[in-house]
Amino acid sequence: MAEPIAKPIRVYVDTSVFGGAFDAGFSAASQAFFEEARSGRFQIVVSDVVVQELHDAPPQVRLLYRQCERHLELLEVSEAALRLVRAYLEAGIVGNKSRADALHVAVAVASGCRAIVSWNFRHIVHFEKIPLYNAVSVTRGFGPLAIHTPQEILHYED
Question: 9-152 belongs to which CATH class?
């Protein structure tokens, strides 16, 4: 009997991970994450927000996105995500200037992603903000979201 094929893990990828692939401090983990996605471990999920933010990105970052297009799922921002953003802002998790960061989290939550990966330590991957995002999401009827850097979700051999 053949082994069952594992279903890829749906992971929302924010813009910082694409840019991180070309930043000395984040390149190795970002590139390894994209390689695992290409191998089928992850289903990359992005939103219109990522596409808009990449519009002004350096050419090599836009090229990486285009190279990943066949491995990604592109989502429009839903009404549920917009309601979540408003709830995050009302809860004071981030201010209105960081609305786009909250929108990345909200799209990931509203679309049922298992995790979001980001290099944004100020507004997303922050030990004080993660439980707040999840508390608001759960009170609104959604499940919790794993929030990590790409490095934290890579597969490591024992």
Answer: alpha beta
CA distance 118 to 147: 8
Count of residues making up the chain = 158
SS3 72: strand
Given a contact cutoff of 8 angstroms between Cβ atoms, the answer to whether 94 and 126 are in contact is no
β-pair type (72-75, 42-47): parallel
CB atoms closer than 10 angstroms to residue 69: 10
Amino acid at residue number 152: E
d(CA 108, CA 106): 5
User: Which tens digit of pLDDT belongs to each residue from 50-101?
Assistant: 999 999 999 999 999 999 998 899 999 999 999 999 999 999 999 999 999 9
Greatest extent of the chain over all pairs of C-alpha atoms, in Å: 55
| pTM value > 0.85 | yes
Q: DSSP letters along 3-50, please?
A: PPPPPPEEEEE-HHHHHHTTSTTTHHHHHHHHHHHHTTSEEEEEEHHH
**CA 140 distance to own-chain centroid:** 20
- Whether 152 and 116 have beta carbons less than 8 Å apart is answered as no
Using only C-alpha atoms, the chain has a radius of gyration, in whole angstroms, of 15
Backbone angles phi, psi at 120, to 5 degrees: -85, 95
Domain ranges of the chain: 9-152
